[in-house]
Amino acid sequence: MKVLAAMSGGVDSAVAAARAVDAGHDVVGVHLALSRMPGTLRTGSRGCCTIEDSMDAQRAANMIGIPYYVWDFSERFKLDVVDDFVAEYTAGRTPNPCMRCNEKIKFAALLEKALALGFDAVCTGHYASIVTDADGNRELHRAAALAKDQSYVLGVLTREQIDHSMFPLGATPSKAEVRAEAAERGFTVAQKPDSHDICFIPDGDTRGWLAERVGAEQGEILDRTGAVIGQHEGAHAFTVGQRKGLNIGFPAADGKPRFVLEVRPKDNAVVVGPKEALDIREIAGQKFSWAGLAPQEPTEPFDCEVQIRAHADPVAAVARVSVVDGRNELVITPREPLNGVAPGQTAVVYVGTRVLGQCTIDRTVSAVPIPAL
Length: 373
Known about the structure:
- By secondary structure, the chain is α+β, with helices and mostly antiparallel strands.
- The protein has 3 domains: 2-184, Rossmann fold, CATH 3.40.50.620; 216-273, Adenine nucleotide alpha hydrolases-like domains (SH3 type barrels), CATH 2.30.30; 278-366, Elongation Factor Tu (Ef-tu), domain 3 (Beta Barrel), CATH 2.40.30.
- It is built from 7 helices and 20 strands.
- The strands form 4 sheets. Strands 12, 13, 14, 15, 16, 17, 18, 19 and 20 form a 9-stranded antiparallel β-sheet that branches. A 5-stranded parallel β-sheet has the order 3-2-1-4-7, sandwiched between helices. The protein has a 4-stranded mixed β-sheet with strand order 9-8-11-10, with no helix packed on it.
- A hairpin with a 5-residue loop joins strand 5 (128-132) and strand 6.
- Helix 1 packs across helix 6 and helix 3 (74-90) packs antiparallel against helix 4 (97-116).
- The mean pLDDT is 89.
- ATP binds at residues 6-13, 32, 125.
- Its main location: cytoplasm.
């Protein structure tokens, strides 16, 4: 099989490419250049998208003995990931840029180009597994090492994309084993730190980065009844669940801390309240997809588990597709309240270890009613 190995410059993608070669595939390595100004991306040997990462990837490809190329995806990355990130914050939502990168870049733009060039599959270093059912349908599942499982960030994959994906690390028991294998192969990235944080915010100051692009305008901080209790310097700087940095100046009536419950960009307002008001009894989103075969009767409630962050524990839930204002919507009702969920986040639905699908959260319903005036 002809395989395109996406090589980030980290240890995982290097070992994944080597394993694809060991499996007998015809492998070509490619590194994605995501910025024409590399200084605008995070540095420090974190294995994600900088010049030093490109060089690390090339050294690994040379040792494996496969052709290696760098593809310029900077324009697509800016449009689909960076601009989307700014637009979502401007709309008062909490985006996940890594999720968008997987969806729009690694498994849309990259796979589309790979297939056009005659490749059969794209190989990455994600910790996830592909399982083929009795009827030959390919399914996306959690990795064997649950502590390293990355199936959540792959929840945006479609059935066609899964059919052309390869995850050689899915059955690996631990990251330590991957590093040991990399060292045995002589890869210089064997002990390279994992990538983390947002790659296109060089200093890690998300609030400052957004202020430069969105602007900062003073607005009101409201309680759940709509009463004005303070001022802020820009709604984009706040996220649902945030406690620090509110600077209201006086305590709540019950003396308990306040948390951000909602961001209203149209009014430039931030709504705060007690921690228990962060408990959510229902989430829903119109932008949803199925990772493989859809449920036979998606409009009928079905049991599942829902995960709302990459490293969150899954929660038992019931899901269904309903019609709202003429549009389909995936509605998920957890059996116990979720905490601190924000519109813009991704909810990934599982059945056992299988990733069934996902939705971008449009709305939430609090488990705690708003107090009467």
